[in-house]
């Protein structure tokens, strides 16, 4: 399980996270919702090690992640699908997937078949350049690349952003399959309420750098939760 305990994060004098505590258990989908700019991406940057925290602690399956570089966290099983996907446009689909080998032991440096069962389009397009893929296909590639790192927790930043409904469904199905078949933890940051309501086991809502609500997915329909999500 991933535990984030009373974490603060600053950009210079501006505080983006204020005493944030969340847990993402193994075998569960945990969703963090919130409007634009409330600190969701900052929380994921803190977890993946891309941004230093100024207080609190982050641990995964008993290992303290505090101060570890992103690649060390990847080696411990933290897989990341960034906002905007960050596909290498001039590398082929296969080469993009292979960039996930970096934190993996030599014997595991192959692309697991599961990735092509989840996203058959990646197999069809293995030789095409990443930049030639549609936004939805790039999102599938970004998830595939994270899976190549053999994560024990998959952290996704707004995977539905700018993506057509049919591919959103495929991504939802893939996330559920990963939870059920591998028992990995999944931590998802989203603005798309329906996607979270359908998928999540547990939800948190952030507002102005703080967690202001937590509960099972059904609690997203309470007036109190709605108030934090409407503009
Ligand atoms: N590199 C940075 N330098 C300074 N301030 C930043 C930086 N990145 C984010 N911020 C600020 O921190 C706050 C939280 O931003 P963050 O990107 O974490 O929010 P978010 O909820 O992920 O938003 P979005 O949904 O737009 O991605 C915002 O006020 C933002 O302007």
Automatic annotation (TrEMBL):
One of its GO terms (biological process) is L-amino acid transport. GO terms for molecular function: ATP binding; ATP hydrolysis activity; branched-chain amino acid transmembrane transporter activity. Pfam families: ABC_tran. Keywords: Amino-acid transport, ATP-binding, Nucleotide-binding, Transport. InterPro entries: AAA+_ATPase, ABC_transporter-like_ATP-bd, ABC_transptr_urea_ATP-bd_UrtE, BCAA_Transport_ATP-bd_LivF, P-loop_NTPase. Residues 2-231 form the ABC transporter domain. PANTHER family: HIGH-AFFINITY BRANCHED-CHAIN AMINO ACID TRANSPORT ATP-BINDING PROTEIN (PTHR43820:SF5), HIGH-AFFINITY BRANCHED-CHAIN AMINO ACID TRANSPORT ATP-BINDING PROTEIN LIVF (PTHR43820). Belongs to the ABC transporter superfamily. This is Urea ABC transporter ATP-binding subunit UrtE.
